[in-house]
Amino acid sequence: MKYTVGHYLATRLVQLGLGHVFAVAGDYNLALLDEMAKAKDLEQVYCCNELNCGFAAEGYSRSKTLGASVVTFSVGAFSAFNAVGGAFAENLPMLLISGAPNNNDYGSGHILHHTMGYSDYRYQIEMAKKITCAAVAINHAEEAPCLIDHAIRHALRNRKPAYIEISCNIVNQPCTAPGPITSITNNLVSDDASLKAAAKACLEALDKAKNPVIIIGGKARSAGVENQIVKLADKMGCAVTTMAQAKGFFLEEKPQYIGTLWGEISSPGVEKLVTNSDCRIYIGSIFNDYSTVGWTSEIVGEGDIFISAHHTKVANKEFSGVYLKDFLPALTSGVKRNSTSLEQFKAMKLPTKKVVVAKGNAPLNTVELCRQIQGIIDHKTTLFLETGDSWFHGMHFDLPNGARIESEMQWGHIGWSVPSMFGYAVAEPDRRNIMMVGDGSFQLTAQEVCQMVRRNLPVIIILINNRGYSIEVMIHDGPYNRIKNWDYAGLMSVFNAEDGHGLGLKAKNGDELAVAMKKALNNTKGPTLIEVAIDPEDCSPDLVIWGKRVAEANSRPPRVVK
Ligand code: TPU
Ligand code: MG
Predict the structure, then answer these.
(1) Are residues 179 and 201 in the same domain?
(2) Three-class SS state of 213
(3) Does the beta carbon of 326 sit less than 6 angstroms from any atom of ligand 1?
(4) Is 159 within the bounds of a domain?
(5) Residue pLDDT, tens place only, 478-492
(6) Same domain, 508 and 426
(7) Is the shortest distance between the CB of 481 and ligand 1 below 6 Å?
(8) Boundaries of domain holding 493
């Protein structure tokens, strides 16, 4: 078969198991989209704007090997850059593919539309280089296969976004056919001597340790080691905790699971247990101001082991070129049982979780809301937690095996959850996809709900209308935290127009919420948005504590330079 540049690119995506690519049309990418459509098994999914298109690819990549967005030059790509920054921060491989000027226009002095108004068009790739692990510009067809493969290979290896721009007049030019996909997907192999030395050093540290504990962080999923962590935990028998970003990365039904580690707002007993451990095995952990609760809780000591995607650190030695996926099996094979930390945890006198059922006609509060959400989380559920009070409520859900949490705690872009869950639901239409999103966040990206309607995706959107930016109120209040109210549930009829099956519902008390939840579960033809009315004063007690600590960290006085 004869290949063109666009067809080559699309074929590579199909070879990697992608069934969809997200796009917003523009005259720099129309011919590219035509060529990509030649790959029969790659459906084009169109978005309302390029920010959402980028986040949709990011969400798709949470399920599949990779996500990809196709946008037009500058006016499109600049908007998508924000989502690319998010994918970089969250360690999710995605491709931003931008149509680019006709290759005759480079160096010609021509001024083109959609550009900055000067004739050097390299500014976009220069910008992309800062926010991706690989950025390539394809201006000649014969270079395309090598450059496309380079970008994809780097995205997959580094679990980061990559950027590809293609001149609009070469997308339909002939190029060579793609070779075996293994040339892109073959993984980096750990250095054998370093791997053995790292395993030996960790095993020595663990032999000396009294009460080791495993702490799973936000990078563990992108390293693809969740199952291997279970094997390590099974062999050691010690306690296992997940940091907030990693909620759901360990099977919570396992007896070793003790809850969330998040400083002062950890699950009961967890911070104390971790503090008292003489060997913390941190796997893919991220310490930032939010995860350490405004730098009040970064629990590290000399006996700790830090296992990262590409290196391991223990006993003041660093072993680079040791990949997590190779290292965990090596560690597991040599490790001895030590369940002391779990026994210590079980011996703690901790308060038992009490679930209070609210009166059916009482105004809805967040406790009752969460009680009812817990009731619909099953083993096929993926729960998206938007930036805001939803993060804090989300930590308290018990997840049956198979249930997942998705959040974006490093980048923290409000409005992320709507397009990201759209992309995820395109990849995973048979899961029970639920979103908890605040009113403020929803206003950024609301229009993407229409694409869920368009594709008949039966997702459930729980929209918490607390009349403003509660998370910001708890950090630092002012008039800027109040927002214009919308008729959120009413939006659904706007998005349905003449052919949609979305449902927009409102709940002001527990009874109304229970009825709405039932309707949502029965609506298999489209999204259901349930707008829940919550008092602006009602938020998670964890947010109150966390907000105070973050505010203290933000307002530290300037450093005095002598
Ligand atoms: O539940 P709640 O009220 O905390 O959530 P809601 O209503 O979604 O409010 C979120 C408020 C918020 C802002 C305004 N959280 N973070 N920010 C700052 C911010 C501004 N712009 C972007 C793109 N991302 C942000 N995180
Ligand atoms: Mg709000």
Answers:
(1) no
(2) strand
(3) no
(4) yes
(5) 999 999 999 999 999
(6) yes
(7) no
(8) 366-549
